[in-house]
Amino acid sequence: MRLLFDFLPVAAFFVAYKLADIYVATGVIIVASLLQVAIYWLWKRRVNPMHFVTSGLVLVFGGLTLLVHDSAYIMWKPTVVNWLFAAAFLVSLWRRVSDRPLIQRMFGATGAAPELGEPLWRRLNWMWIAFFLGMGALNLAVFRSFDEATWVSFKLWGMLGLTIAFIVAQSYWIAVRTAAHDEPAG
Prior knowledge:
By secondary structure, the protein is an all-alpha fold.
């Protein structure tokens, strides 16, 4: 459910693009991102850091897209967002910043943190760093190598599909390690 809420502005962008063009879609994603932050705040009485960063970058890159009428700016946004998330996960590995990797803190915030131990949490954090770096690079490759319509479809279906596949793979990885931890020695 949370993943779908996170992707709602992208879905609104996609629909607006299909009905109009990249500039209308850019205006729609700006409004949808701001609404997403507002809805989350009304629901939880706090701002989700991921929504805040993403919305800020949508405002900057979307605003530039509309101001100079160049779609390249909004096409850069997913790469910048993914690389910033990779940087946040990387910085969280330094003990001076936090006592736990970012992925462990995120799981802890949901109340669903599995028992993994520090080395496995760090490895999982590295997987997220690699995922975000790869997604940023893949977005760059698609927007530089294909036409605008292909990039828009990739932004919704490709990025959503890859994110779901990564989460499923990560869940399996965690389940295997947690099951091995729960088995009695003998």
